[in-house]
Write a structure and sequence with these properties.
It is a single chain. By secondary structure, the protein is an alpha/beta fold. The chain folds into two domains: 225 residues, Rossmann fold (3-Layer(aba) Sandwich), CATH 3.40.50; 105 residues, Rossmann fold (3-Layer(aba) Sandwich), CATH 3.40.50. The protein is built from twelve helices and 15 strands. The strands form three sheets. Strands 7-6-8-9-10-14-15 form a seven-stranded mixed β-sheet, sandwiched between helices. Strands 2-1-3-4-5 form a five-stranded parallel β-sheet, with helices on both faces. Helix 2 packs parallel to helix 11 and helix 11 packs across helix 12. The radius of gyration is 21 Å and the shape is elongated.
Length: 384
């Protein structure tokens, strides 16, 4: 877990009181103060490695809310206790992490971060009736077919962002010659398959290349050469930022100006830091900008005060996941699996993402994606 600042108990209490007076405090926290067994919440995701920038913001969000809630007496007198585990966004680590937090008797899990890791762990949670809410796992099958009734997410699914990207390329950029590249994973390939499906259903589009790459490779010159030979005007990439930055860098060093469009696995400041000047002009989808939402502004302020920097990727999604989960415990006045699931699907909660609830599949209602572009070293929402 990231280091905690010492001596912030008084500050936390004062912040909580200030937020109450301004109408921003978590309505699900604070009631009785009698001693009760804690509510244990697993916070599982990538906390190390190349994708740590996606997982650590969730730890931060959960920590901020748990400390604030506990300062007000917990949930109906029950304190919140966090069990933080690292899965490195790797399926084999995810199953180990899931088994460990279940062994610690968690009541629920916020995570995992990557779709592949989430899929690997969900069956384990399902067997133990553990409600699991991911702030970032977008693979559509996770909520389809009723296989995982214990799973919820505070982010839209890949078919939504795939449709947005296809419409953007065809209608805004007005380009039709397209190369689709993916990393062969549950997330990247799943996204790419939806892109391919939407493009095949539009007579304007011409798919010149559809191919997977090997994650973690040093040299992607082979795929770069194929893209060049294909004559594609635009690349739509499904995967994460480490591979995207390498492919993009090799493209640009070969003098290729092919437009690069990708998913929320690339929309992260780490991508810009690694790709440097070559990141300029890249498009990527990501959660809608809610920066004008008062709750989002307050959540960002809390992070800045506690950690000394602006929050990273999926912070607002994780913050919202914690809010809806704690609200379910508060409203149901129960820690039973069936009661929490029922409440999550019936209650609307004000969050940094807006007022949200969940449908019968576990997908968030009221959440979507937006298109962003790197301009002068930062992702800016495309409004035209």
């Amino acid at each position: 877990m990231p280091p905690q600042k010492k001596g912030n108990i008084l500050l936390t209490i004062l912040m909580a009181l200030a937020i109450i007076t301004s109408g921003f405090f978590i309505s699900s926290c604070g009631d009785t103060h009698e001693d009760k067994e804690s509510i244990k919440i697993g916070i599982v995701g990538a906390h190390s490695g190349d994708l740590a920038s996606y997982g650590i913001p969730t730890v931060h969000a959960a920590t901020i809310i748990a400390e604030k809630c506990n300062a007000e007496g917990g949930i109906n007198g029950r304190p919140i206790e966090l069990m933080v585990e690292d899965d490195g966004c790797k399926p084999e680590m995810a199953t180990s992490a899931a088994t460990k937090v279940i062994g610690e008797n968690v009541n629920a899990v916020i995570g995992h971060i990557c779709s592949g890791a989430t899929k690997a762990a969900l069956g384990i949670y399902k067997e133990s009736n553990i409600v699991t809410i991911s702030p970032s796992a977008t693979n559509p099958p996770l909520t389809q077919g009723g296989e995982y009734p214990n799973f919820f997410r505070t982010i839209a699914s890949d078919d939504d962002q795939a449709k947005l990207e296809v419409d953007f390329v065809l209608n805004v950029l007005k380009l039709s010659k397209i190369a689709i590249i993916h990393d062969k994973g549950d997330y990247g390939k799943g996204f790419a398959e939806f892109v391919k499906q939407f493009l095949e259903n539009d007579e304007r589009a011409e798919i010149l290349l559809y191919e997977g790459i090997t994650p973690g490779a040093v040299d992607y010159s082979a795929i770069v050469n194929k893209i060049k030979e294909s004559g594609a005007e635009v690349i739509i990439y499904g995967g994460y930022h480490p591979e995207a930055s390498k492919i993009l860098t090799q493209l640009r060093k070969k003098g290729m100006e092919t437009i690069f469009v990708s998913d929320d696995g690339v929309k992260d400041d780490t991508f810009i830091k690694v790709a440097k000047k070559y990141a300029e002009g890249v498009y990527a989808t990501g959660p809608m900008d809610t920066s004008k939402n008062p709750l989002a502004q307050e959540a960002k302020k809390e992070h800045k005060e506690k950690y000394g920097e602006d929050p990273g990727a999926f912070y607002f999604n994780a913050y919202s996941a914690m809010l809806v989960l704690l609200n379910a415990y508060k409203v149901s006045d129960s820690i039973k699996y069936e009661d929490i699931v029922k409440t999550l699907k019936s209650e609307y909660v004000d969050t940094p993402l807006g007022k949200i609830s969940f449908d019968e599949k576990g997908d968030a209602i009221g959440i979507g994606f937006a298109m962003y572009q790197v301009k002068e070293g930062q992702f800016v929402e495309v409004t035209e």
